């Protein structure tokens, strides 16, 4: 607790007479207010007390009171005393005297601690007499009265004559003062008239200001209503959000339930596909054996055709030579124009040699390569052989971006390699 806090606690507890005494003796003033009598203090007590507590006046008050008060502790030191000893001093001299004495000894912290301790204990020592300075005032008046009586007892006739001369001089001064007073009254009337005019102007300004204040209050009321409305809307929005959130949670739970059902269904479908694949594999094995037989027959027939074509070519050459005729053998006349198609077969069988053909250039893609394979666009056709692919190959193809760029007219689907062989054989 600082020195200012101590004064804030002490001064409001003083009587009007004590506050008046402080103003008078410390030569402090409050602009625009009288402070000569207790009634002056009573009329504007809060304002005058607040004036004493300003930083400037507190500094002056502190300097004055350290020199003039407390008189009963002028020759005593409290700096080294304990709190119990200070309490005994308070009982004898009063709390204000002890606090001010400690402040005068630069022990503001100790004074503040003492006051805080008494407040915590709710001690009776906190009582401050309203007539804190009245006793000193009375003592001063007694001294003045005694001096006055002694002075009267020693006045002689010469002093009486001197007093009469002074009285005559005083009367002359009074007349001069009365003349001056008349001039002052005339000036006062003029100033009063000017003051009334200023008051009138001020009142008009106050009316305008009151009007603006009223308008501002109306705006504030409107703002408060708008704020209340926005708060209601916010509450509704929060409530709607909570309902929506609950709905989303419910939908999420439903989706999770649906996902689990789909996983269960997928697991079951996977088992069925694996079983189907197993059966198809057995069927494919059977078809493969038939296909191998067909391929062998096809190769034999192809070899026979090549032999016949070679014999035909040699015969033509012999005839041309025997007839002594220059004859240029044009290969386009001896063999059919071949158009070779490049084909990517998706699903590689365990045998490929038997499928070789001069009308197709075949390249194979195994089932395990589908997912990460970059499908080129330079093939004429893309043949998908289902029996040679593992279950779920359609999903892998659907997720392969490069396959999605291929024209679907170039994609052919075959169940097994028997159908592939039929396509090759039936192509002219």
What does this structure look like?
The chain has 428 residues and is mostly helical. The chain has 14 helices and 4 strands. It has helices at residues 3-10, 16-26, 38-43, 45-52, 55-68, 83-93, 95-104, 108-121, 134-153, 157-322, 331-334, 393-398, 401-404, 417-425; strands at residues 341-346, 360-365, 381-385, 411-414. It has a 4-stranded parallel beta sheet, covered by helices on one side. The radius of gyration is 62 Å and the shape is rod-shaped.
Topology:
Blueprint: H1 3-10, H2 16-26, H3 38-43, H4 45-52, H5 55-68, H6 83-93, H7 95-104, H8 108-121, H9 134-153, H10 157-322, H11 331-334, E1 341-346, E2 360-365, E3 381-385, H12 393-398, H13 401-404, E4 411-414, H14 417-425
Task: Give short descriptive properties of this protein.
single chain; 428 residues; mainly alpha; 14 helices; 68% helix
Q: What does the radius of gyration come to?
A: 62 Å
The helix tally amounts to 14
Largest sheet: 4 strands, parallel
**Helix coverage percent of residues?**
55-70%
Give the structural class.
mainly alpha
Distance between the termini: 114 Å
Element order, helices and strands?
A: HHHHHHHHHHHEEEHHEH
Query: What is the strand tally?
Result: 4
Overall spatial form: rod-shaped
Side by side, the strands of the main sheet go 2-1-3-4
Unreliable spans are: 134-150, 323-338
User: What is the subunit organization of this protein?
Assistant: single chain
- Report the β-strand fraction as a percent range: under 5%
The overall pLDDT, averaged over residues, is 79
